[in-house]
């Protein structure tokens, strides 16, 4: 085993932006044993910085569901985007259904002028642009839609997949969060690109995840591990299950597997 990759929300994190001391210590032991560690997340690089400070590590980052890869020094070595004409169609459909979007391209955050914007933790790290119309938004790394009612997002996923599945990757990263990524782009392709950089086979990778946007990553690696709190789509596909994120499931599994 040469590489361990973990999702963040619902997997490595105990709660939003919080990682337990137990998990921090375990990951540092893993790295001291010369096992590479990387993070694969639907978040942009800005949304990972507080976690990296807690960890005290500088891992490779697969961000925006594989649309971006960053070196430990912060250099972007892979950048894929949803074309502007596709972006416009998808955003118009979201607004037609009386929902709001957050749209990201590297350091830029776009939203509708009509939108009541949440003051999310990393908002100050982006150049924020409020647009009059969806046609004003360029090609993007990621679009997200959040809603406290999971049923609304389930309906939206079906609608968007029916219309745009040939143009973009559309999935639920959490029951209350819908992610839209460039076509043929996932955490799985992120791992394939990382394997090329290190001249490794993807069978040399272990990965941890809990959500639909982890599915391709888990299919890609030689050692897929899902959380006890995983979405049903993962439970139906993978048999290796660790404890939940609230029980330090990633750390407990690594400790036993690598004898840390």
TrEMBL record:
Q: Which UniProt keywords apply?
A: Hydrolase
What Pfam family does this protein match (any one)? Hydrolase_3
Report the GO molecular function annotations: magnesium ion binding; phosphatase activity
Q: Which SUPFAM superfamilies match?
A: HAD-like
InterPro entries listed in its UniProt record: Cof, HAD-like_sf, HAD-SF_hydro_IIB, HAD_sf
Q: What is its EC number?
A: 3.6.1.-
Q: Which GO terms describe its cellular component?
A: cytosol
- This protein is called HMP-PP phosphatase
């Amino acid at each position: 085993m040469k590489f361990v990759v973990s999702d963040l929300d619902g997997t490595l994190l105990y709660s939003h932006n919080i990682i337990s001391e137990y998990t921090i210590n375990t990951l540092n032991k893993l790295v001291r044993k010369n096992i590479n560690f990387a993070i694969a997340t639907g978040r942009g690089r800005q949304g990972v910085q507080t976690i990296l400070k807690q960890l005290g590590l500088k891992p490779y980052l697969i961000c925006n569901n594989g649309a971006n890869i960053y070196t430990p020094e912060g250099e972007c070595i892979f950048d894929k985007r949803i074309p502007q004409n596709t972006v416009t169609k998808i955003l118009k459909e979201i607004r037609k259904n009386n929902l709001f979007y957050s749209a990201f391209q590297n350091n830029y955050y776009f939203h509708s002028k009509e939108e009541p914007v949440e003051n999310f933790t990393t908002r100050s790290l982006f150049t924020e642009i409020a647009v009059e119309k969806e046609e004003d938004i360029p090609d993007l790394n990621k679009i997200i839609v959040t809603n406290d009612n999971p049923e609304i997002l389930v309906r939206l996923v079906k609608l968007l997949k029916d219309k745009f599945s040939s143009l973009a990757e559309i999935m639920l990263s959490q029951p209350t969060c819908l992610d839209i990524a460039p076509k043929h782009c996932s955490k799985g392709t992120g791992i394939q690109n990382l394997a090329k950089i290190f001249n490794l086979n993807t069978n040399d990778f272990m990965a941890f995840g809990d959500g639909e946007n982890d599915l391709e990553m888990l299919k890609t690696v030689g050692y897929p591990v899902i959380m006890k709190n995983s979405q049903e789509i993962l439970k139906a596909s993978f048999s290796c299950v660790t404890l939940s994120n609230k029980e330090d499931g990633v750390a407990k599994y690594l400790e036993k597997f690598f004898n840390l």
